[in-house]
């Protein structure tokens, strides 16, 4: 029988709190390491035609670490941290934040939908290689879609221990591959060309930096766990830096090791030939058609699937928070009773994904280049835009609330990160054709980035409308589940409501 | 069936009263012995499967809210500006309420409503299930799956129709636009704050019922601001549970 007297408040609440490694586990699940090295990097080589990913991984890890200093510092001072638009609302302005919230929804939707492309393509190639069955990629994508859509609404827990084991297995497979690659250098010589600054120049630079930023998406998830971590002041920063560091080492070394095994002059051609199969093909050349290669291929699929689910719920949760704030219609703030899932956000995300996958299937477009890489990298561009804006939001927030944070966290780090990210953004936007691998004059080079401009402008105008027409909603922007205006009255539809104010 | 058809049963609009001014429910109600937390538990309990119809973490927040509301009714605690004010007075007579009140007295340094609510949510479901078990409403049964014990507990109602009636009763009151008494308006507030109102009103005109509840809650707010604040925290914590990636 439960007994109130024998428990204490702090002790009871601490029992369910998360430690550093749990938070890293959650962050890396979204990052899907095997998918990055086996899918993003290899497709990146094929599309951009540049070798220099290893160096780019190191550079972006440095920039994102710099960014994280101010980011995790501000997370300690705001509720509902972990959502970029919260930072924009508290650091810049609520109107801008509404624009940011739409950019965020678009970016995470693109990242999620893009993964259906690589899932379908990888599954089709595995089945075709192993069983000789040629089934179109979209069949597998739609099967994955149906499972994600159901799990999203039912919120079936993928056991965190299962995720941890899968993640550890992924990392192990990557490390084994790396050792095999480095032990078998092409031409008998280990080349460091992948780290050469000379490779990282020209129009490809912006493209490579966006690709690499996309690979790191997931590192920003730490502050989501602020309220659930053992010691928010230490757990979240430690998890953020450690996961960045782990990803940087794993990605930079693997990209380099693959280039060593293939030969730096042949990497691009091999990637163009084998695309997402490249890593497994190269590994099979040295290991034969062994168990570990098949295991790697299967883990690639589970890794992509975990990423699909992770971005799906990120979108659903973001729409739920916006529904609670009444920035999106209140219906988005509703949950599925039994599962507690943000039901409407989940259904809408699945709807969007369905339309896109069907559209690509009907158009006969390439699942890897046109769906995974184009949409995924454009999603990464959205995250880059948000990271840049968030750096300035951190500056703005600490200008208003200096508190006891030292100058380097309040001003120096976010300022330098902001400038660096602006530089990366400039390079990305001016070289977008090379990121997409299209003709330099193709209108696609501005159409993709322009969608962000469009939704941002719509969002800011809508934010302006909210500020004048619904001031009580405007006051709650950025508070997520904590935005309780009396207008909302706990999600009930009230015919008339005149009082304003909110409870924090 | 229930007695709210009884003429003269609905309280006057001023029926919220002050502390201890009127009984929580009419004496002839079959659930008159029920505390708000117990009633909330039975509303979210599936009378057929014995499982909770609301996610266990969110249900626990609602049940904890009910336990705290009981202390607010009795004038033992109050809320304002996110803080708990503990009133040093005669403890409640009911065993669980007395324990909960005692908990507040032993940790005077913890004043944050959120912290208390999160703490009681950890233990509320067990406490209330025990109390309902002792009062003959339910019996806990260990769930089995393929001859294995899963460790999860279900709660088999002793009388299914009595359990099913708790949700129907609230829905009927709202559908008939009755003026709710303190017990029922608190129940309505908790059900709305935990997002369970659609499930309760499944065969009733949802919009009209919700609008009626909103009016009643607005009225409650002017008389019992502490309860309104409690609902707000239950609503926010439930929302955070939904936002939590590891619910």
CATH topology of chain B: yeast vps74-n-term truncation variant fold
Mean pLDDT of chain B: 84
> What's the end-to-end separation of chain A, in Å?
34 Å
Give the CA-based shape of chain B: globular
Supply the key terms.
heterodimer, A: 504 residues, mainly alpha, Amino acid/polyamine transporter I, 19 helices, 71% helix, 0% strand, B: 247 residues, yeast vps74-n-term truncation variant fold, two-stranded antiparallel ribbon, two-stranded antiparallel sheet, 4 strands, 53% helix, globular, disordered N terminus
Q: Your description of this structure?
A:
Chain A is mainly α and 504 residues long. Chain A is built from 19 helices and no strands. Chain A has a single domain (3-489), classed as Up-down Bundle (Amino acid/polyamine transporter I). Helix content of chain A is 71%, strand content 0%. The longest helix of chain A has 38 residues, at 94-131. Chain B is mainly α. Helix content of chain B is 53%, strand content 11%. Chain B contains nine helices and four strands, in the order ααββααββααααα. Chain B has a two-stranded antiparallel sheet with strand order 1-2. In chain B, strands 3-4 form a two-stranded antiparallel ribbon. In chain B, a hairpin with a 2-residue loop joins strand 3 (138-145) and strand 4 (148-157). In chain B, helix 2 (56-73) runs antiparallel to helix 9. Residues 1-28 of chain B have low confidence and may be disordered. The chains are: A mainly alpha (504), B mainly alpha (247). The interface between A and B is large, with 53 and 56 residues.
List the topology elements.
The complex is a heterodimer of chains A (504) and B (247).
Chain A: H1 9-15, H2 20-31, H3 33-48, H4 53-75, H5 84-91, H6 94-131, H7 137-154, H8 160-183, H9 204-216, H10 232-262, H11 267-274, H12 278-287, H13 291-324, H14 343-363, H15 367-400, H16 407-430, H17 432-436, H18 444-469, H19 471-475
Helix pairs in contact in A: 2-8, 2-10, 3-9, 3-10, 3-11, 3-13, 4-9, 4-10, 4-15, 4-16, 5-6, 5-15, 6-7, 6-13, 6-14, 6-15, 6-18, 7-13, 7-14, 8-10, 8-13, 9-15, 9-16, 12-13, 13-14, 15-16
Chain B: H1 36-44, H2 56-73, E1 77-80, E2 83-86, H3 95-106, H4 113-134, E3 138-145, E4 148-157, H5 160-175, H6 182-193, H7 197-200, H8 206-223, H9 225-243
